[in-house]
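During the second year of the project, the team shifted from modelling isolated chains to modelling whole assemblies. The rationale, set out in the original proposal, was that interfaces cannot be judged from single-chain predictions alone. As a representative example for this report, we include one of the complexes processed in the last quarter. Its constituent sequences, exactly as entered into the pipeline, are reproduced here:
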Amino acid sequence: MTANRLDAEEIDWTPAAVGPPPPAPPPAPARPRRIGSLEILAAALVLLVVFRGPLAGLVAGERLQTWTTVFVSVLVQAVPFLVFGVVLSAVIAVFVPRSFWARALPRHPALAVPAAGLAGVVLPGCECGSVPIAGSLIRRGVTPAAALAFLLAAPAINPIVLTATAVAFPGNPEMVVARGGASLVVAVAMGWLWLRIGRTDWIRLPHRPDLDGESKAQAFWAACRHDVMHAGGYLVLGAAAAATINVVVPASWLQSVADNHVLSILALATLAVLLSICSEADAFVAASLSQFSLTSRLVFLVVGPMVDLKLIAMQAGTFGRRFVVRFAPTTFAAAILVGAGVGAVLL
Amino acid sequence: MSRLTQAVVLLLFGGAVLRASLTDLYLRYVKEGLRPFLIGAGLLLVATGLMTLWHSLRAPGTPSPAAGTEPDDGHGHSHEPRVGWLLILPVLGLLLVAPPALGSFAAGKSGSVAAPAAESDYPPLPAGDPASLSLLDYASRALFDDGRSLTGRTLRMTGFITPGADGSPMLARIVLTCCAADGRPIKVGLTGRPPLEAAANTWVEVTGVYSTERAKDPVNDVDVAYFEVRNWQEIAQPKQPYA
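Output from the structure prediction step:
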């Protein structure tokens, strides 16, 4: 029986691209056959393979070649984290019952925020993975404030990132404490701020095919597919932006602002947003910016995992634009203030 | 984008990641340690593609009762993520273009990595004549130990040629911590008989001795060590291009 259905489908798909008159397969309702996405994809792939030579020639210039290398490597680096984040968020969406979160997190939202922030400690990964997970948590009824605290805290305070920071700053162990503390403070503060002034209608989670009516396995794979396509697409956007900045902005610009205390903090905060480096690597980059003060480098480490081009693109995709235009600048400001404050006390 | 199309894109994307991680291609972009995770992620992507294919062929056009907007074949007003089309770009990048590892352009753009200062005394150089050591190790021993552990030995290092600020060739290698986006060059100046005729981006193996000459990298004011070249030869790019 299954075989019959498959055959019917094959008949449905193949001639449709060629002949405009719909052959009207028995089970499907008659509908006007237009050029579908599969046909576009096939045509695009054929064109790309045919014009492979000239295309590769286009990427011959040194600048463009470096752009392509950086673009591909940001993606290759992020893919494992993206995929595992997506799978984990699909598990949350499909296999963890809604009631679990009600029991796991404190009932009062104001207490749930720090609890969720601290929960970020157990998720070793970088920021690409935590965006779909936070989206999934909100879908499963976790209060947005707590999910956002988790979103901000998880990439910054997990053991891998803190270990990397310790390795990158061998002479300054206080950098690890300062980074973990400042990041957690920003995450919790943003969660509480959301409780006070946040509005649920700012968040617009993307329409995801309703999972409740399907079998668990089917729902799981549908959630994986949807999230990879969605978050992955935005990740591509972010990687392209980061590669552009990497190639276009000359490093000598930084040299000229390093001596001014306030300017250097703002410059490194902006650089963290633009470079969009994975939170597991940013400590080493910060260590190499040795002409800057420790405080400004701490701000770089606090801002980076919370606000960057790649994250802004992914958050816009997961939570909607109305959310991101408010959330990203506020987080940016909070991260600079807290980072500079903690730096002034500890470093 | 119909579910079937998404399945194809997922298969391509997963296939590209798998191909890059099963060959040495991934070493141009990330560290060796990421390989098992890349293979795992590639397999999961392929599995997601296959399951999508299976579900959409087995039950085409199952209308989801609550949504009603789930298109069976991508026509009409689809809420399926359109941004997913962009995933074709990394597939292109990995399968068709496969850009080379970072080289001279990236090295010239950023300032040299500050060589790490050792916590304690430097261990003796590895045995052998010439003794092989990395650019980072050389720079660190030269700058922070005044070359004490280097003098009297013939040394060998590999790297690619990058023109310095004055146009004279320097030996460089890109240091990665995570992926090529955070790659920074370690540069060492060359005196003695430097490979003047080697073009930028040429990989060379130089043998020579410690030099007391120093300079500053104009990009970020970091100290740069020098190396006195006695001999050099062109070599193929090593399998692991980054330091």
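Chain A has two domains: 2-58, 65-346. Chain A has 17 helices and no strands.
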